[in-house]
Design a protein that fits this description.
The structure is a homotetramer of 298-residue chains. The first copy, chain A, is built from eleven helices and eleven strands. Chain A has 298 residues and is α+β, with helices and mostly antiparallel strands.
C-alpha cells in the first residue's frame, strides 16, 4: 500500500491549511472539524491522536452542528450514487460493499428504507460500509429504522467516526507503537503451555479477502507460555485479518495426555482483526484437550 | 471409504470364529482378546460396544497377559520394519507417520531409544502413530523413556487401546447413533445468539489432511441459539476433522454493536476432531465481540 | 413478601379502571401508559407480558410524550425529597439507596449535578436506584452528564423501564413459568461432570442483603452432569441473589487427579441474581482443576 | 503459626545430620531420602528446592526402594492407628481427616478395602488425607482398588510426595518469593476493566476451615485492569484458601450498561487455594455482565 504521507507523525505535523486539506475529507464535507482539531491540539504523533482530536470536536459540537455533519452524508445506494455525484471516498466505500450492483428488488428496498428513515429522523441512514456485506447493511437498516431518534443520532455519529478512521488510515502508515503478543495457558494442568508450536498468517486487509494467506512466521512458546517478543511490531504490524494456528494436539500428545486417535482439538485456529495497528493486541489462548477460549487482552 | 462389513451390527453379530478372524487383529497378534470378549458379551450393536468389551478383557487380564500383549508389538522404526516383517496393520500405520522415511540421524535416535526403553522396561515403546508426526513421536519417546515402569505399562496399554480402536473402525461403518449439534450464546447480552449464520465443512480424515475442505452445509441459529436439528447424524456423520465458521461479526453488526471497521472477531472458525462417530458431539460457541470459548459439551 | 394481588394472572385480568389504578403508578405519574397498554393487549398472563405491553407503549410514544414522562420524575436527592414531596414509590427507592442520608459535600455535588444535567438536557437525571449504592449513583451521574442528549434520552427511558419493572413485581407474585437449571462440564476430561455435589443458597432480595443465607438444597449431578430436574421452579423460584457452591475439589480428587494438598479449586461459589422469576435461568459451570467459567445460558 | 526453623533458607542450610533429623520424617520412616538429597544438592534456599531434591531421589530410586518406601506407610484407619502405633505425623493427619471417629460400618469398609488393596498390590493404600473428608477418602479408595498395579504404584508415589510437601511446609516459613496478582478484563468491551473494586479475604488454612474470614484489603484496578502491585507477597503470602470478591455489578453500572434491577452478576467471588506460597499465583477475571471465567495464570 502506498500512502500520500510517509508517516503518521509527518501528517500530524502539517501546518493548518495543509492539515485541513489532507485530513478535512475524512469527515464528509465538514472541514471545520479538522480546522478546530488542529487549532486545539496540533501537532499529532499518531493516527490515533488525530482520530481522538477529531472526535473530541465532533462529540462536543452543538446538536445543530452534529445534525449538519450527518446531513452531509449521501444516502446509501441513493440518487447521488446513481448520478455519480458522490465524493471519491463515498464512491469507493459504496462500491466495495456491493452497493453499486443491486438487483431491482434490493434497490427498491433501499429506496424505501432511505425514504422512511430520512422522513422519521431528518438525517440520512449512515453505516460504515467499507467491510460490510449487502446482507449486513440491509439487516442493520431494517432494525435501525425502528429506533428512537436519540439512539439513531448517537449511532450515526459513531458510524461517522468509524468512517473517518477508515479514511484516515489510508493517508499515512500508522505510528510504530503497536504490537501483537501471545500467551498460552494449559488449563488442564494449571501452568503455562511451554513448547507449543504456533503459526501466524496474514489473511488480508478485510475479513472477506479472497487473497491467499501470507505466512508470517513459525513460533514456539517459551517456558512462560509466551513468545520471546512480539510476533509483530512497528511498521511490520498492519491492520487486517490474522490467524494464529496453535498445535494443541501435538502439545498435549508430547505431554502425556492419552488423547483419542483423532484428538478433539489438534490444530486450533484463532482468527482476529486488527483495526488500529498503533495499539497493543494481546491475543492469548487458554486450552485443555477439550476446551479453549480467547479474548482481546492487554 | 469401503468396509469389509456393511454395518457395525453385522460385524458385532458374527459367530465366534468369524468374529475372531475379523476382530482379532485389532489387538496385535493377540486373538485371545477377541475370543474372550465374544464369549462374554456377544452380540454387539456398535463399534463402541465391541471396543468396550475388548478393553474390558485387556484391563482385567493378569499382569503376565498384559505384558505378553505389549511384547507382541514391534519396535517403532525398528528392525522388523526394515525387514518388512510387520503385520499389514503396523506397516500401514508406521508408513502414515513417516517412519518409513527417516534420515540416518533420526534412525539412529530411534534405535537408541528403542534399545534404552526395552532394556529399562522389558517391553517395547508403544504409541498410536496413525495420525502422529515424527516430531510428536520423538518428543513423546524422549519423555516417556524417563517414566517409572508402572506409569509406562499403563500408558502402553492405553496406547494399545487407541490402536485397536483405530483398526476397529476400519472394519465397518459406525452404528448410526452419533450426531453433531451446536449452540451459540451471546455473552455480551446474556441471551441465545439467534440468526447467526454458520457454515460447516469436513476437512478430511485426519488433521493433516491436505484434501480440499468439503462444504457440508450452511445453517442459521434459531431463537434459542441452536440449529433446528443435528448438523450431522446417522450415517452422514463420519469420523474426521470438521470446522464450523460462525459469522460473529455479522451477528453483532446487525444487532447494533458499533464495532470497529475491521472487527476483532468476524469469521470465527472452530476446528474439531470426531474420533467416535457413534457418540453425540455438542460443540457450542460462547461469544462476545471480544472473546469466545468452546468445549466438548453433552 | 405479601402482595396486593394473589397472582400475576389476576393482576393482568383486571378491568381497565382497576388495572390503571393498580399498574398506572409503575410509570411515575403517567397512568396513560397503563391505559393504552390495557386497551391494546389485555388481559395479560404474566408480569413479563404486562412489562412488555407497557414498554411497547412507551417506546412507540411520540418524542413529546417521552419527554413528558421523563419530566415527571423527581431529582435524585433533590428539593422534592427534602420537602417530603415524592411519590411513595420514589421515597422508598431513594431511601433504600441511602440518598436520604447524604453528607453536606455529597448533597452539594448532587445539587450541582442535578442543575447541570437538567439545564443541559431539559429533563432530570434518572437512574433505577433501588439496589444501587451512593457510589454507583454518583459515578454514573458524573459520567452521564457528559453524554449527548440523544444518548441520555435513550438511557433515561431504559432506566424508567427498569424502575417500572421493579415496581411492577412488588404488586403480584410472578407467573410460575420460571426455573433454575444447572449443568457441569469437566473440561479436563471432555465429559459431563457426574457425581459432583452442589449446594444452593438464597442470599436475599438484593446483592447487599445482610440477612443470613438460606439453604435451599443439596444436589448431585447425574450422568449427564445435570440435576434431575430444575433446582427451583414455579412459585418456589423468587427473584433475588443465589449462590451455587460446587464441590470441584472433591469431584477431581475422587476421579484420580492428583491435586496438591490445598487444591487450587475446591469449593467453587457462583453468585448470581434473578431479576425476572418468570424466565428460565440456566447457570452452568465448565471446570478443570485449574480454570472455570460460567454464563447465563438457555 | 510457629515454626521450628525461622526460614526456609536456614532449614536448607543445615549440616547433613541436622538436616536428616529435621527433614527425614517428611517421608515416612525413610531418612535415606533426605540423606541422599542433602548429599547431592544442599544447601537449599527454599522449601520448593528441598521438595524438588527429595522427589528427585524418590523418582530415580530403584523399584525395590520405592516399594519399601510405600510399605513404610500405615493403613488408613488401620490396626496401627487403633493401637496408637503411628508416627506423630500420621496420627495428626488421620485425625484431621476424621479417621479417628469412624462408625462401625465405616470401619468395616476401611478394613475390607485395606485388606483387598494390600493383597492385590503388595503395598498399602496411600492418600494425602490432611484436607480430605471421609467421603473423598472412601470414594477414592473404592475407585483405586480397581486400578492396575503400575497405575497405583505411580499414584501412591505421587500421594507420598504430597504428604511430604504438607509435612515439609510445617517446618519453616516459605521463602519470600511468592506473590498473588490479579487482572480484570472486560470481555463485553474488549478492554481492561479499570476502576473495578476488589476485596481480598483469607478463609483459613484449609477449604473446610470454619474460622471467620479475615479481610486482607480493598483494591481498585488501575487503567490496565491490574492492581498496582501484588495483592500479597513475601512473608505476608501464606498457604491457605483465599477469596477475591469483584464488584462487577458496580463496574458495569457506572460504565453505562443498562443492567436489570437485580443484575445477573454483581458481587463475583473467586475462591482459590494456595498450596505453595513460594510461587507466583496469577488469578485473573474475564467478565461481561453475563459471563465470566478465571484460571491459574502466570
Amino acid at each position: 500500500m502506498t500512502y500520500k504521507y510517509p508517516s503518521a507523525a509527518e501528517l500530524g505535523a502539517l501546518a493548518a491549511s495543509d492539515f485541513v486539506a489532507a485530513v478535512g475529507p475524512v469527515y464528509e464535507k465538514s472541514p471545520w472539524i479538522a480546522e478546530r482539531a488542529h487549532a486545539k491540539a496540533a501537532p499529532f504523533d499518531s493516527l490515533t491522536a488525530i482520530d481522538d482530536a477529531l472526535w473530541s470536536v465532533v462529540s462536543t459540537a452543538s446538536e445543530d452542528e452534529q445534525l449538519a455533519l450527518l446531513r452531509e452524508h449521501p444516502d446509501l445506494a441513493g440518487k447521488a450514487a446513481l448520478a455519480g455525484d458522490l465524493t471519491a471516498e463515498s464512491t469507493d466505500e459504496q462500491q466495495r460493499a456491493g452497493l453499486s450492483a443491486l438487483s431491482p428488488t434490493e434497490m427498491a428496498e433501499f429506496t424505501a428504507l432511505n425514504g422512511a428513515y430520512t422522513t422519521k429522523f431528518g438525517f440520512p441512514f449512515i453505516l460504515a460500509v467499507r467491510n460490510a456485506s449487502k446482507r449486513i447493511i440491509l439487516g442493520s437498516f431494517r432494525r435501525r429504522v425502528g429506533n428512537a431518534r436519540g439512539v439513531e443520532m448517537a449511532e450515526c455519529l459513531a458510524q461517522v467516526r468509524k468512517i473517518a478512521w477508515m479514511r484516515l488510515r489510508l493517508l499515512a502508515p500508522p505510528a510504530p507503537t503497536g504490537k501483537l503478543t501471545c500467551h498460552v495457558l494449559d488449563t488442564a494442568h494449571g501452568c503455562p503451555a511451554a513448547g507449543l508450536p504456533i503459526t501466524l498468517r496474514y489473511l488480508g486487509g478485510t475479513a472477506s479477502a479472497s487473497a491467499e494467506p501470507v505466512l508470517i512466521g513459525h513460533f514456539m512458546t517459551n517456558s512462560d507460555g509466551r513468545l520471546d517478543g512480539p510476533a509483530l511490531s512497528g511498521s511490520a504490524f498492519e491492520e487486517g485479518v490474522y490467524e494464529w494456528v496453535f498445535a494443541v494436539g501435538e502439545y498435549f500428545a508430547v505431554r502425556g495426555t492419552t488423547a483419542s486417535g483423532t484428538p478433539f482439538l489438534d490444530q486450533v485456529p484463532l482468527r482476529f482483526g486488527i483495526d488500529n495497528a498503533e495499539k497493543h493486541y494481546h491475543v492469548p489462548l487458554l486450552c485443555s484437550p477439550w476446551a479453549y477460549s480467547t479474548y482481546r487482552g492487554s
